[in-house]
Amino acid sequence: MKSTINRKVYDIDTATLVAGDESVIGTGDFQWWAEALYLTAKGSWFLFGRGGGMTLYADHQDGHSSEGEKIIPMSRLEALAWCEEHHAQEAIDQHFADLIADA
After folding, report:
1. DSSP class of residue 67?
2. How far is it, in rounded angstroms, from Cα 89 to Cα 14?
3. How many CA atoms within 13 Å lie on the side-chain side of 84?
4. How many CB atoms sit inside 10 A of residue 54's CB?
5. Could you list the pLDDT tens digit for every one of the 103 residues in the chain?
6. Is the pTM here over 0.85, yes or no?
7. CA distances in angstroms from 101 to 13, 81, 98, listed in the order given
8. With contact defined as beta carbons under 8 Å apart, do 19 and 90 qualify?
């Protein structure tokens, strides 16, 4: 998927996949979702998501909701928060070590 948002191009085919996560329910469920965090060559972060008709990614047409997909630009701090929420420790260690303090 490729999308231009706020005059920036986000393309999952040319960006680097950093981490991913998906729901444990099957793809036939309206609440199913899958997300992948990407980093562009120019240092921009974005989330690519797909999901069923009852998710953020749903496609709404003619009063009906169906599976859809979307690209969501993120700041570096938002990307870090996503990694923390989705337990992507390897991505945190590789891309955000300078923002993490020892306990």
Report:
1. -
2. 23
3. 10
4. 13
5. 999 999 999 999 999 999 999 999 988 888 999 999 999 999 999 999 999 888 889 888 888 888 889 999 999 999 999 999 999 999 999 999 999 988 7
6. yes
7. 33, 14, 8
8. yes
Query: b or e along 33-53 (b: 16 or more beta carbons within 10 Å of the residue's beta carbon)?
Result: bbbbbbbbeeebbbbbbbbbb
For residues 67 and 60, is the Cβ–Cβ distance under 8 A? no
Residue 56's Cα: distance from chain center in Å?
11
Which two three-digit tokens encode residue 89? 């420790």
Measured between alpha carbons, how far is residue 89 from residues 37, 63, 92 in Å? 13, 40, 5
What is the distance between the alpha carbons of residues 10 and 38, in angstroms, rounded to a whole number?
9
Tokens matching residue 29: 């469920």
